[in-house]
Amino acid sequence: MTSDRQNGAARSGDQPDRKDLRSAGDLVQQGGLSGAVMILVYLVIGTAFWSLVGFLLDRLLGTHWIVWLGAGIGASAGLYLVYLHMRPQDGDE
Q1: SS3 of the chain: helix, strand, coil, percent, to 5
Q2: Which of 5, 46, 58, 79 is the most buried (most CB within 10 A)?
Q3: Where are the transmembrane segments (predicted)?
């Protein structure tokens, strides 16, 4: 980093520029290593969250199959989110 950025951020406590901030969707759309990591995060967190929901419902209802349904729903939801971020936008060519 340059000394101007270090001193400016340390002295004034300025927020970073809006153009420096990127959303998860921007990372997925741009690709590369950060895009691949975000795709993996979408899939893992979606699957883990809905598996947990399924596990809790299994415990509550006394069944053993809802956890697998939750895992399938979570993986499908993660893939759908990746698809939404990867599709071309109206302004893209």
Answers
A1: 75, 0, 25
A2: 46
A3: 32-53, 65-84
Q: Give the N- to C-terminal CA distance of the chain in Å, as an integer.
A: 34
Q: Both tokens of residue 35? A: 């895009």
Evaluate if pTM is beyond 0.85: no
Could you give the count of Cα atoms lying within 13 Å of 67 in the half-sphere of its Cβ? 10
**Alpha-carbon gap, residue 47 to 68, rounded angstroms:** 10
pLDDT string in tens for the chain (93-residue length): 454 444 444 444 555 455 665 677 777 777 777 778 888 999 999 999 999 999 999 999 999 999 999 999 999 999 998 888 887 777 655
**Which sequence spans correspond to the domains of the chain?**
43-88
Residue in this structure with the two tokens 């060519």, named with its chain if needed: 93
Under a CB-based contact definition with an 8 Å cutoff, are residues 27 and 35 in contact? yes
